[in-house]
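Exam revision sheet. Question 4 asks you to relate a sequence to its structure. Input first:
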Amino acid sequence: MYNDWLSIGKFTIHGYGVMIAIGFALAIYVSYFRAKKKGMNYDVIPDIAIIAMIGGFLGAKILYIIVEFKAFLQDPLSVIGLAGFVVYGGIVAAVGLSALWLKHKKLNFLDYFDLVMPQVALAQGFGRLGCFFAGCCYGAQTDSFLGIVFPKGCCAPAGVKLWPTQLFSSGGDFVIALILYICSAKRKKKGDIGALYLILYGIGRFIVEFFRNDPRGAVGALSTSQFISIFIVVAGIAFMVILRLIDKKKTAESAEEVKTEAAAENEEKTPEESAESDEEKETAESGEEKETAESGEEKETAESGEDDK
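Answer key, structure tokens:
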């Protein structure tokens, strides 16, 4: 809406940059705090943040170049410039590079995947507020009372009412973050929180895209982001299913190992040990029979005593 917040000479503080910075800093702080509380290695959080930031920037830019490849061939510098990103490219690259780095450090990826993704949604919420101030990622024209009129100088068309898709996205991201925080306290399987983020974000992004009207590429009747959202949601569901199948297989293998070890122990017993075991079993059975017989005799004696009376 109003992106230029403060100007000192040639230096200008932009609302878009401020919101991005707030989201990024808050995500690091909350991730650090939660990792410490969970007893995880919290010293790696800044490293993950740096890797995710670099990977996210490059991935989002590369996917934007792919989407706008015709424009890139005509004027490469205009496409490579600071403006223009596709967030899905950033998510995939950031997660992929972070996974490789965690593997190198011999840390469990799923634990940190679940830890970080709620903060990613939180940071995205602030980032979309930045989009609102800049006027990018704007919506289609509308007569609804929810419509927003952007001033001149913004990325959005000025003087007409547009759907505030940036606010829709921001609100949705904050809601996703809240859901993930609630579910984190009840996590049943490693990877569930990260997978749930993919599902919720993919669904939310698919819906918001119907209200957007900024240039962002298309695949048939769908926008590029809607097309990618389908695969993101499927990936999230598949991730949950695969993790459960792996756990089920591990449980079955563990039970089989216990059974095999027990059988091996029985086979390793010497004949003398087996004989002693059989004798002990027979002794225990005869003792039980004796007790049963004595109990029966006592009962008969008691009954005869009652008859005598």
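Marking note for examiners. The chain has ten helices and six strands.
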